[in-house]
Amino acid sequence: MFQNSSGFHIDGGQFYNIHGDHNEITNVYMHDLLRNASVLHAAHNSGERVKNAPRCMSGTREDVISTIMTWIHNKFVPPSNQRILWLHGLAGEGKSAIAQTVAENLCAEKRTSDLIPKLAASFFFSRAHEDRSSAARVFPTIAYQLSNNLPGARDVILRALQEDSSILDLSPNDQLERLIVQPLRLLELTSNVMDVKKLGMSYSVIMIEALDECNDCTSIVQPLVAMSTLLPHLFKIIITSRPESGIHDCFWESITCGITHPLALGDFDARADICSYLVTSFSEIRRRNRRRMTTVPDSFQWPSQDVIDRFVEKSAGLFLYAASIIRFVDHWFESPARRLSKLLTSQPPVSTLLKDHPYAPLDHLYTHILSTIQDYISTLHAVLGPVMSLLVPLSIRDLSTLLSPYVDADEVAAVLERLQPVLRLSSSWNLESPEPIQIYHQSLREFMNDRRRSGNFYLNPSSPHVKLTNCCFHIMAKMLRYNICQLPSHLIQTQNNEGHILDARREEHIPGSLRYACQYWAQHLLLSSLSVAGARQYLDEFIDSNLLHWIECMSLIGRLGKAVQALRLLSNQKRFGSHADIFMDCETFILAFYHQISTAPLAVHLVALPACPRQSLIRRRFAHTLPQGGNGNADCVPLTWDELLRRTVKARDTQPSMLDDDDDIQSHNLLRNVSSRTDVRGNWSVPLAKVLPESITQGNWSVPFAC
């Protein structure tokens, strides 16, 4: 039990101060590092997305699914070497539902005797989630899933990460090669675990869905195509996307040389499946709402076959069109029969500029739904625009609070009620419903951002970001303050086991709307069309009134790394002039005192600021807020950042006991590298984040709060 362990003692049946096998401890740390760099809710079966994930209704899309499953199970027969299946189709043709269904089928196929999972890893992109649209997070996520799902993969992947943790900050091309391809090839050479012939089984799939919703899809496709043949023969890759020209160009050469098998969803006749879907769905609506459909005699077919055929014809192969009709008709209050009658008598938009557009029927449906509040277009834009532009979806309550400068909660509820057919919203929702609000499909955003298609409903893509920028600054100015959680002194100053008190205070004083504002104000500012003067006005007020309180709050919610990321974005904006300089200085400020601030948020004011270098912009800006006597002996306060960093490294070198855990050890090693640089100048012109791994400065890396 205690092999390779040392430095422990036993007292009363409890173990203290155990320092186990170094390799095991390192692996645990590296696994946590990889986990934090991955996107857990991007997996096909993640708790966040699986409940509302689209799926093919039983008995539909069987021809497409059968084709995909056959391709997966077929063995490589020379000269064929197809490693990638690219399923492409227009928005609304059902790619996501097919991918989810195939993924679940693969998981269901796995026998208990199988060592290898049929689905090795998956990443489902989404523009509605910032991290699920990031190219930088794809391959760390896949590597993390492989390390958990594939026997033997954990050791080789973590070994690669241990040898060079900067892999997580490299380009997707290098991440794929060094974090996935090379480790798996090593595993193939040293183990029989991936010998398909000996195992007598089919292949294991890596699935990437909705690639077109990635912020840099080329950086994903190109390395996958280039390195797919270097992966062990066990693996096949399925990618779904729209047939966008950039993606097609990346696949073209691999298609011609037989590495990629293109599968066009439009080549499959979906009319019978759409008809089956409509008939089944309308029957279910009638069954559930029979008491509210007294005008429809039981002996009548509802709707008639002519109506079904009309919808099938207008759908033009888009399952999204059929699904949107069902959601519109299936209303919680108004009679479904009346809703259907309204839809059948509605007229197409007057404009015929795009009458031959493949999405013309969908545009007509969207126009009809939005026209239910056409007299309140400004309110519609004030609610729907932010819903489509949020970087992370919010609950109705948090959304209403965030948008309070423009609309009140009742107006938000009224708009959402009218827009229920185009939103992911349960039929029993209310203002206290916890589920996040999202649009049902990205095609609605594209419709509203195209003036030719949406007409009076057109919404400039940058306009919601202007509103959200104002909303974020407004709620931060209103709610941020010193000791926002009103923590008692014993929780502020010492580590303890009363985390439940902090959780309750955090829930009470930092609502979801404020959490969102603190994490994403910088991104919305940069995505908005605000003038430089307008942006600087916001920044002036924020820096003077809320900057330090914001850092405290970001520490409390465990997002101090995201604070550094936001500051880095802003410090790179030279158009902000002196504001960019202070954000660069603030970035260094957080990283220099990262341990103190992350473990005791009020250390921002009580420890870090008083110890800040005398020439730092942060100290100069907030000298008036220093605690009484905070200036202390001027000779004891470093003059510049590089002097402070060198003192810190020297102190830690001479007192190793100061390094409490792996986080301290890693940050200490990084500080040593920084302080030994010869190109730093008096005011530390190179921010620490430039030489720190991005895994430290993004995501949820911060040390758990225990004060």
UniProtKB/TrEMBL annotation:
It comes from the Eukaryota. Pfam families: NPHP3_N (PF24883). Residues 69-242 form the Nephrocystin 3-like N-terminal domain. Keywords: Repeat. PANTHER family: AMELOGENIN, NACHT DOMAIN-CONTAINING PROTEIN. This is Nephrocystin 3-like N-terminal domain-containing protein.
